[in-house]
Design a protein that fits this description.
It contains six helices and no strands. The protein has about 120 residues and is mainly alpha-helical.
Length: about 120
């Protein structure tokens, strides 16, 4: 019995630590990422691309309005995969999980194609 108690006491901190590492919201909220960002390395999409995702020529952020979710997903993949690319968007794309990329691109495509 004592052995079980010691084992249990040793496992609890490990479980708590592993849970806090995976504390990201699941499933990812595309609207939250687009409007508020996701952590320190992923600012809100609207901060560069504008509140209507129409882009910002001054900062070089392109419009996302005419793109489908698969096209946006491809763009993020290309940005993240090119290890020679050190742009701000490449860094952001690398910090998004595939699930986060899917959620945010689905949200942006829905908003820009439906005018919501």
């Amino acid at each position: 019995m004592r052995y079980r108690t010691l084992l249990f006491a040793a496992i609890i901190p490990v479980l708590i630590a592993s849970h806090s590492v995976r504390a990201a919201v699941w499933p990812p909220d595309g609207q939250a990422i687009a409007e508020h960002g996701s952590g320190v390395d992923v600012p809100a999409c609207v901060s560069c691309h504008g509140s209507n995702f129409g882009g910002n020529p001054r900062s070089g952020a392109p419009s996302l309005r005419a793109k489908s979710a698969p096209d946006l997903m491809d763009d993020l993949y290309t940005e993240a995969a090119n290890t020679k690319n050190h742009s701000k968007m490449a860094g952001i794309a690398r910090h998004l999980s595939m699930a986060q990329r899917a959620a945010v691109t689905a949200y942006i495509a829905h908003i820009t194609h439906n005018g919501d």
